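Hi R.,

As promised on Friday, here is the backbone we talked about, encoded as structure tokens. Could you run it through your design pipeline when you get a chance and send me back a sequence?
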């Protein structure tokens, strides 16, 4: 909750270090220096910003609790924009707990989740997308998610949104001007230019919204579906990729009936591997449902590994199977020839889209991993902005819908004041991303998901 934005001085453990390490207690607010001075052997009143002083910290009863370093950051040049003190205390849970209790007795109160970052936003130290990036940065489990969060923290996404808004505001200005002279029945703004501008802003907005699919995949794992007829070694491959005995393997065709999925990180990129029921004609209702699920997961996968069995599938039958596949064009299909250790036919030449391997012996597995990383690299290495946050994606889609209404209004002779109201709607949606509109309701939602001390 952001209920704590009342100007009080707040304190919280910022990082909980292990025994023997240093824990940082952050104190922020107008009374930060005074509060800490009450429980510290040295007054911080005259200490310059970004200076550290050594002293003794007292507990709530006035006894010496610890020797520690207090670092002073004066507002507005601090993380929150307010006067802040960071106390580096010894990391024992007892010292941490007593230090916080002592600060509370000295006039602080506990910070809510994300309250430091919420204050940073309210004090203009960062926009909303950057504040959200702080949460993402802390939650990032792998290099891909970390890079996206860092990009967002640096403000690239916010700049793009502001540029879009600026263009739209310019457009709205022209429209308002036209409204001012409505009685004279003049059309100031050139409709063609208007339309071109609206189209351009709409397509940029949609493009950003569409990047959410890639952004989400990077954060939550790029979906890779493993498909093929029964007994091709799909489950064996899943287990080999995960390095874990995750799915049941047997020589009985139709072993896997449900989808089995798990994630692993390859070269800093998170992949979500989905093992599926073998595809075949079947009268068994449960198996048929498994196959339906397999195809539905394949439809939302970014990469499909289609397995053939080098010991039973002939290249001709494989070609026929591939030709009859009805997979969405968005998925990249890689043909994987498994069981090369028992190959019965001449094997095709390996290429970017054709891989030869033995899931059982591990031969060719590294090449497959490298190929997957290379394919994912398209999404992660580009310098273009990628939307990773559902809230942003939804706001972008809503803005695009309002812009569609603007276009409709312009082309169907709807009065300019109604068109102007759609323009304002679009501005509102874009503004909600960076927090340039009244942010009260979205604030609670965003900062509630933070941890205490940030
Ligand atoms: N020789 C050899 N056998 C393999 C290889 N990979 C899998 N197998 C064997 O092939 C059989 C089927 O493997 P699974 O992984 O269960 O095949 P699946 O595609 O998941 O089969 P379903 O779940 O029935 O669709 C098992 O006996 C595996 O041990 C391989 O690379 N070489
Ligand atoms: Mg299986």
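Update: got your reply. Pasting your designed sequence below so it's all in one thread:
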């Amino acid at each position: 909750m952001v209920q704590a934005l009342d100007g009080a001085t707040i304190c919280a453990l910022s990082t909980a270090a292990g025994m023997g390490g240093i824990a940082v207690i952050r104190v922020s607010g107008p009374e930060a220096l005074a509060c800490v001075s009450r429980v510290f052997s040295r007054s911080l009143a005259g200490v310059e910003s970004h200076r550290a002083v050594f002293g003794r910290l007292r507990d709530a009863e006035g006894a010496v609790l610890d020797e520690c370093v207090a670092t002073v950051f004066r507002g507005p040049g601090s993380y929150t924009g307010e006067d802040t003190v960071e106390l580096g205390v010894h990391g024992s849970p007892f010292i941490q707990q007593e230090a916080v209790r002592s600060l509370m007795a000295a006039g602080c109160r506990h910070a809510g989740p994300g309250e430091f970052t919420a204050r940073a936003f309210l004090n203009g130290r960062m926009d909303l997308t950057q504040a959200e990036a702080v949460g993402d940065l802390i939650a990032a489990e792998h290099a891909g998610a970390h890079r996206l969060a860092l990009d967002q923290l640096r403000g690239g996404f916010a700049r793009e949104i502001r540029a879009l808004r600026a263009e739209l505001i310019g457009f709205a200005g022209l429209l308002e001007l036209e409204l001012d002279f409505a009685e004279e029945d003049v059309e100031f703004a050139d409709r063609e230019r208007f339309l071109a501008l609206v189209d351009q802003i709409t397509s940029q907005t949609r493009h950003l919204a569409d990047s959410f699919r890639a952004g989400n995949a990077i954060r939550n794992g790029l979906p890779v579906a493993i498909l093929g007829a029964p007994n091709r070694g799909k489950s064996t491959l899943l287990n080999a990729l995960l390095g874990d005995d995750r799915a049941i393997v047997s020589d009985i065709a139709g072993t896997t009936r449900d989808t089995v999925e798990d994630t692993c990180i390859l070269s800093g990129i998170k992949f979500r591997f989905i093992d599926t029921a073998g595809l075949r004609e079947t009268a068994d209702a449960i198996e048929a449902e498994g196959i339906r699920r397999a195809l539905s997961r394949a439809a939302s996968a970014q990469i499909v590994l289609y397995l053939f069995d080098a010991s039973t599938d002939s290249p001709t039958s494989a070609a026929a199977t591939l030709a009859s596949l009805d997979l969405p064009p968005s998925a990249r299909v890689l043909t994987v020839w498994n069981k090369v250790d028992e190959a019965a036919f001449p094997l095709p030449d390996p290429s970017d889209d054709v891989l030869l391997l033995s899931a059982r012996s591990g031969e060719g597995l590294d090449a497959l991993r490298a190929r997957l990383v290379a394919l994912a690299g398209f999404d992660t290495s580009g310098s273009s902005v990628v939307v990773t946050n559902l809230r942003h994606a939804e706001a972008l889609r809503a803005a695009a819908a309002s812009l569609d209404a603007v276009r409709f209004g312009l082309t169907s002779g709807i009065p300019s004041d109604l068109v102007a109201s759609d323009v304002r709607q679009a501005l509102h949606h874009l503004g909600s991303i960076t927090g340039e509109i009244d942010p009260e309701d979205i604030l609670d939602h965003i900062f509630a998901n933070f941890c205490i001390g940030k």
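One thing I noticed while checking it: The chain is about 45% helix and 15% strand.

Thanks again,
M.
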